[in-house]
């Protein structure tokens, strides 16, 4: 069913937060590259600092500000790298930049934090000892700084009450962590090639119960993923469905552990389906 048919209020929200076509100039497509402009903040995390890259859509925001998406990188791929993609690049990385582009063009601010080591490591969410002691992790301090910076307007006119999260692989597990550690803060999640916050590849136990207020969640997965077994996200999705949480799972049977070409449109459509309440 087209999302426009859900409710009149949803249609009004979509029209209000989506810039007109002539206002979508944040990204430029060349023969083989897609490049999106961005700004950078530096925030504390553990004993060091991290860069956090961001951009808001062109045009005027709602009175409350733009809805915003925290987009978490996969391990070994920096957050800054999400803003420039080359067609044919490894692991479908071009489609992560297309995701940034599509989010901006549909009226979402985009925030891409760096994991430790300038993004060349994994997120803390499923790495001992932080997996079981999240509040003490450097990434938790980084997230606290991001939320405070959103509240302070440091990322521009962003609506702190209209937040979404998405990510792939390690960033997908990090996206699940948003449901576990920050109840009520996010309106929707998109988990790509990953599963529950503390899972790691084939080692994956889905908690029972999951958080009662788990946000509506889209899962994306390649059917030939040999790093994160597709069954791990399937079990997570099934558990959410049993709880009555709105869930969708889209798989491409012949794809491996990589960004799917359906991801940009699927993520935008999913988030547009769940305006802030």
For the record, what is the CATH homologous superfamily label? Alpha/Beta hydrolase fold, catalytic domain
**Quick check: average pLDDT?**
92
Give the termini distance in whole angstroms: 21 Å
Domain tally = 1
Largest sheet: 8 strands, mixed
Tally the beta strands: 11
| The CATH top-level class label | Alpha Beta
Number of helices: 6
Share of helix, binned? 25-40%
Strands side by side in the biggest sheet: 3-4-7-5-8-9-10-11
- CATH fold-level assignment: Rossmann fold
> What coarse outline follows from CA principal-axis ratios?
globular
Unreliable segments (pLDDT under 50, ≥5 consecutive)? Answer: 1-12, 18-24
Strand content: 15-25%
Which structural class is indicated by helix and strand composition? Answer: alpha/beta
Question: H/E order of the elements?
Answer: HEEEEEEHEHEHEEHEH
Rg estimate, integer Å: 17 Å
The assigned CATH architecture is 3-Layer(aba) Sandwich
